[in-house]
Specification:
This protein folds into three domains: 99 residues, no CATH class; 91 residues, PDZ domain (Pdz3 Domain), CATH 2.30.42; 181 residues, Alpha-Beta Complex (2-enoyl-CoA Hydratase, Chain A, domain 1). Helix content is 27%, strand content 24%. It has eleven helices and 19 strands. Strands 3, 4, 5, 6, 7 and 8 form a six-stranded antiparallel sheet that branches. A six-stranded mixed sheet has the order 10-11-12-15-16-19, with helices on both faces. The chain is globular and about 75 Å long.
């Protein structure tokens, strides 16, 4: 439950729901409404809704008993505001404010109107420039481009991964807006946005980008490290259904007519989604128990039966991580590190491995509550501690270039030392 920078991707990723831990998640049916039953005043209806929400937090929030939160005091403070009289709009605003008074990510509130809008939103396409971003608070708040969608307006305008965006249409990116600054980058297809951009080691420049209609996609990048017998794979921020198969295909290519003496899995920009192939990647590189998913009442051990593919079970592994590594990629890195199957290099990850369950409230709103987390066989809580690299290197994504990357250089050195 560490403080974390949430990474925005062009797809809306609702929660980290795994088939491996699906049995631990709670499904709650929405109550049927109608013009029957008791009639409640506005205040009574708000109180019922608030207490239902609070009961779900109290019963299922994964860190309820360990979080540094004065639960009773917060409960009484918000109940007092309801009793003082709130409009429905003010009530919704109060529950959104409660999100900030509790640990980061503990729960997300959607009013009935917000829920309906989210349910009807088509997230397979969007209008924007096609840049997948992260947010950097220091030294000057700015957007960092993690990846660029192939064929997108951003690519056509010359934007590249590792570029930083400091201003949008002449207005600076602000600390308080964080990743919501992306809303100023997005806009109707055909319109133009002017960005103040800086590539690593170069001067700022103005870039005009004509927005377009886009489909959220990801793509694995792989290559052989020049001058070595080591392979390299960069896993994208947005997973896709064929990602596991693409990893296998890349392994086949890297081992065709040559011996692969080491493999670097770069997870520094890898985010999590339903389609992230956690079990599939474990099966390629490891055989055995990877850890447990657990909630307040149950736990489930996850084991994989490894299958060697082109020497994948024995090839020396180095995994690269950083602050943009989130969710299932963190679990992959932490477990392979703990089992001494891989050396991990980079910066400490945020520990964003919790899964959420959805609960519907009496007024038609809903909340997403963090109910499931992950623990390694040695007892280490990835959600609390993140992944601590064997070799720690602080090199931000906006500080490196493809030809000057100290984290990859360190990975090559680590593989050479194992030969």
């Amino acid at each position: 439950m560490r403080n974390r920078n949430i990474i925005f991707t062009v797809a809306i990723l609702a929660s980290l729901i795994l088939s491996a831990c699906a049995s631990l998640l709670t499904e709650v049916e929405e109550a049927v409404g109608g013009d029957y039953g008791p009639v409640y005043s506005v205040q009574e209806h708000q109180t019922r809704t608030f207490e239902a929400m609070w009961s779900n937090l109290e019963d299922t929030y994964i860190y309820y008993e360990t979080a540094d939160v004065t639960w009773d005091a917060i409960h009484e403070a918000y109940l007092g505001r309801i009793n003082a009289g709130l409009t429905n709009e003010e009530f919704s605003a109060q529950l959104h404010e409660l999100e900030t008074d509790l640990p980061t990510g503990a729960f997300i509130y959607q009013s009935r109107a917000e829920r309906i809008e989210a349910d009807t939103l088509d997230v397979s396409t969007y209008e924007g420039i096609g840049a997948i971003i992260g947010f950097q608070e220091e030294e000057i708040p700015h957007i960092v481009i993690l990846d660029i969608i192939e064929g997108s307006p951003a690519e056509k305008a010359g934007l590249k991964p590792h570029d930083s965006i400091f201003e949008i249409d002449g207005n600076p990116v602000l600390l308080e807006e964080g990743l919501s600054a992306v809303n100023r980058v997005r806009g109707p297809s055909g319109s133009t946005v002017t960005l103040t951009v800086q590539s690593p080691g170069k001067a700022e420049r103005a870039v005009d980008v004509q927005r377009g209609k886009l489909t959220s996609t990801g793509k694995l990048e792989s290559m052989q490290i020049p001058g070595t017998s080591f392979g390299y794979m960069l896993l994208p921020p947005i997973a896709y259904d064929a990602l596991g198969q693409d990893v296998l295909q890349a392994l086949q290519t890297l081992t065709t007519n040559q011996k692969l003496d080491g493999l670097i899995l770069d997870l520094r920009i890898a985010g999590s989604s339903r389609s992230w192939p956690l079990e599939g990647l474990f099966t390629i590189f490891y055989n055995g128990a990877i850890g447990e998913f657990y909630n307040r009442t149950d736990k489930q051990l996850v084991q994989v039966k490894g299958e060697d593919a082109f020497g994948s079970q024995t090839v020396p592994l180095v995994i690269l991580v950083g602050p943009n590594t989130q969710g299932l990629p963190e679990i992959l890195a932490a477990s392979l590190q703990m089992h001494k199957r891989a050396t991990v290099i980079g910066a400490i990850t945020p520990g964003a491995v919790e899964s959420t369950s959805v609960y519907y409230l009496p007024d038609g709103a809903r909340i997403f509550v963090e109910t499931t987390s992950f623990i390694l066989p040695n007892g280490d809580e990835v959600g609390n501690n993140g992944v601590s690299p064997n070799v720690e290197i602080e090199a931000g994504w906006d500080e490196i270039t493809p030809s000057d990357d100290p984290v990859i250089d360190s990975a090559v050195e680590a593989l050479e030392a194992q030969q």
